[in-house]
C-alpha cells in the first residue's frame, strides 16, 4: 500500500502577486506582473522588462530575525522564505519549539542563489577586505541556503535538502517530496523552489537572444505563449511553496486540502535525437507524460486540464504536439490548456513551483484561468486543437484531473498529476 499524498498548504511570491490570495486574484483577473526594469536599460540589455515580485510592502521582520536581516542580500532566498513560511502557516502548522520535528522535511530547490551577495563578496575579496564579508556570506550563496534557512526556522528534522534542475526544479522538488511521503519516510514535506532576480541572472539569456526585444514600451504584451507573434520568453523570478502531507495525517488533524498528488515522473532526453542543452527530446517528453499517467493510474482520456510549460518560444507548438501525441487527443477532444507565463514571465527555477500553486488553485476553485496575449494562436497549434480549449478568459469549469509539466535546460522533464479532493 502506498500512502496517499495531499496538499495542505501553499505560499507564493510571484511577479503578479505576493501571498496566496493576491496571486489567486491576479490569475483570475489576468493581471500581469511584467514591468519595465530601468536597471536593465542602464546596462544596455536588449530586453528591458521582467517579472519581479514586489515585496516593498512586506514586513521582512515577520519572516526573519534581526540577526538574519543584517547583511541579507539574496532576493531569491527572501522570496523562498516568504513562500515557504506562508505555506507552512497556511497548512496550520507551527515551528518545532524544543526538539526537531522528525516527521517533517524540506525539499526546496533553486537554480542559483544569492548572486548579488556573491558579487558583493567578490568585491570585498578583491579589495582585500575579506574580514568584512560578514558571517552570512556562505549561507546566502550556497545552493542549499534556502532549505537550510527554512529548516532552521521551522525545526524540521526529516530530510532537508535542495535540488536543482533548471526550469524543472520546482516540479521535480514536488515529486521528490511526494515520493518520500508515499514511501512512509516522512509525514509531511515542504516543497518548492525559488529564483533570484536581476541582471546577473537574466544577462545570459539576453546574450542568447531568446528574450523579446520589441516590447520594452509595452511590457504586459511581451510574454505570448502559444501566439503566432511570440518572440521569446520574458525573464521572471520568485518562489512557490507547497506543504505535502499524508492523507491520514491531514484527515487526523482536520487540515484543509487543496488537492491530491496522484503521481508523476521525471526523466531526461539525454540530449540525443531532438534533445539538446536548450531543447527537449520530444520522445522523452511524450514518455515522461505517459509514465506520469501510468504512475498516477490515470488514463489519457481522463485528463481534464493541462498547465503547460509553454514559454512563448518556438517550442510551444512542439509542446502541444507532444501533449497531443501522449494523450492521443486533438481538436475538441483535447483538454483545456493554459500557461501562466503570459502574466508572470518565465520564473526559471521557480517556474514549476509557482505554476503548481496556480494549478492547484484551479482545482480548489473549479475554474480554468485564462491565457493572455494569444489571441493570434500559432497556426500549428490551431491545426491541432480547438480554439475553445485555450480559454482567453477565466471560466468556471469542472476539473477533476489536471496534468502539470516542466521542461528544463539540460533536456530534463517532470510531469505531475493532480486530482481534486474529495474525488
From TrEMBL:
It holds the Pfam family ketoacyl-synt. GO terms for cellular component: cytosol. It comes from Flagellimonas flava. Coiled coil: none annotated. Its EC number is 2.3.1.41. The lineage of its organism: Bacteria, Pseudomonadati, Bacteroidota, Flavobacteriia, Flavobacteriales. SUPFAM superfamilies: Thiolase-like (SSF53901). Homodimer. It is an enzyme of class 2 (transferase). It is found in: Cytoplasm. It catalyses: (3Z)-decenoyl-[ACP] + malonyl-[ACP] + H(+) = 3-oxo-(5Z)-dodecenoyl-[ACP] + holo-[ACP] + CO2; a fatty acyl-[ACP] + malonyl-[ACP] + H(+) = a 3-oxoacyl-[ACP] + holo-[ACP] + CO2. Belongs to the thiolase-like superfamily. Beta-ketoacyl-ACP synthases family. Residues 2-420 form the Ketosynthase family 3 (KS3) domain. The keyword Transferase applies. The keyword Zinc-finger does not apply. One of its GO terms (molecular function) is 3-oxoacyl-[acyl-carrier-protein] synthase activity. This is 3-oxoacyl-[acyl-carrier-protein] synthase 1. Keywords: Acyltransferase, Cytoplasm, Transferase. PROSITE patterns: KS3_2. GO terms for biological process: fatty acid biosynthetic process. InterPro entries: Beta-ketoacyl_synthase, Ketoacyl_synth_C, Ketoacyl_synth_N, PKS_Beta-ketoAc_synthase_dom, Thiolase-like.
Amino acid at each position: 500500500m502506498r500512502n496517499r499524498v495531499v496538499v495542505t498548504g501553499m505560499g507564493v511570491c510571484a511577479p503578479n502577486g505576493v501571498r496566496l490570495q493576491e496571486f489567486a486574484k491576479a490569475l483570475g483577473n489576468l493581471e500581469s506582473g511584467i514591468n519595465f526594469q530601468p536597471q536593465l536599460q542602464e546596462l544596455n540589455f536588449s530586453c528591458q522588462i521582467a517579472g519581479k515580485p514586489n515585496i516593498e510592502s512586506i514586513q521582512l521582520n515577520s519572516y526573519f530575525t534581526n540577526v538574519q536581516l543584517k547583511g541579507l542580500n539574496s532576493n531569491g532566498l527572501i522570496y523562498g522564505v516568504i513562500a515557504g513560511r506562508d505555506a507552512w502557516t497556511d497548512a496550520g502548522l507551527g515551528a518545532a519549539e524544543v526538539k526537531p520535528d522528525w516527521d517533517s522535511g524540506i525539499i526546496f530547490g533553486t537554480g542559483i542563489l544569492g548572486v548579488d551577495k556573491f558579487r558583493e563578496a567578490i568585491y570585498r575579496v578583491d579589495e582585500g577586505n575579506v574580514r568584512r564579508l560578514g558571517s552570512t556570506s556562505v549561507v546566502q550563496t550556497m545552493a542549499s541556503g534556502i532549505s537550510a534557512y527554512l529548516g532552521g526556522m521551522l525545526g524540521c528534522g526529516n530530510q532537508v535538502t535542495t535540488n536543482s534542475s533548471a526550469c524543472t526544479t520546482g516540479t521535480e522538488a514536488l515529486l521528490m517530496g511526494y515520493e518520500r511521503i508515499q514511501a512512509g519516510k516522512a509525514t509531511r514535506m515542504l516543497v518548492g523552489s525559488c529564483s533570484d532576480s536581476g541582471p546577473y541572472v537574466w544577462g545570459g539569456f539576453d546574450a542568447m537572444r531568446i528574450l523579446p526585444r520589441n516590447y520594452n514600451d509595452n511590457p504586459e504584451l511581451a510574454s505570448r505563449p502559444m501566439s503566432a507573434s511570440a518572440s521569446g520568453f520574458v525573464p521572471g523570478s520568485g518562489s512557490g511553496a507547497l506543504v505535502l502531507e499524508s492523507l491520514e495525517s491531514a484527515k487526523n488533524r482536520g487540515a484543509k486540502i487543496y488537492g491530491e498528488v496522484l503521481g508523476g515522473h521525471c526523466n531526461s532526453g539525454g540530449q540525443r535525437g531532438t534533445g539538446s542543452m536548450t531543447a527537449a527530446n520530444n520522445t522523452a517528453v511524450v514518455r515522461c507524460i505517459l509514465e506520469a499517467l501510468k504512475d498516477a493510474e490515470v488514463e489519457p482520456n481522463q485528463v481534464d486540464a493541462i498547465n503547460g510549460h509553454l514559454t512563448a518560444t518556438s517550442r510551444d507548438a512542439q509542446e502541444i504536439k507532444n501533449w497531443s501525441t501522449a494523450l492521443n487527443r486533438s481538436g475538441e477532444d483535447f483538454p483545456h490548456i493554459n500557461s501562466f507565463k503570459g502574466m508572470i514571465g518565465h520564473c526559471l527555477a521557480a517556474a514549476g513551483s509557482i505554476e503548481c500553486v496556480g494549478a492547484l488553485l484551479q482545482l480548489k476553485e473549479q475554474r480554468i484561468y485564462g491565457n493572455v496575449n494569444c489571441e493570434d494562436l500559432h497556426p500549428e497549434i490551431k491545426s491541432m486543437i480547438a480554439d475553445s480549449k485555450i480559454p482567453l478568459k477565466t471560466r468556471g469549469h469542472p476539473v477533476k484531473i489536471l496534468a502539470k509539466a516542466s521542461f528544463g535546460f539540460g533536456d530534463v522533464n517532470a510531469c505531475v498529476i493532480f486530482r481534486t479532493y474529495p474525488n
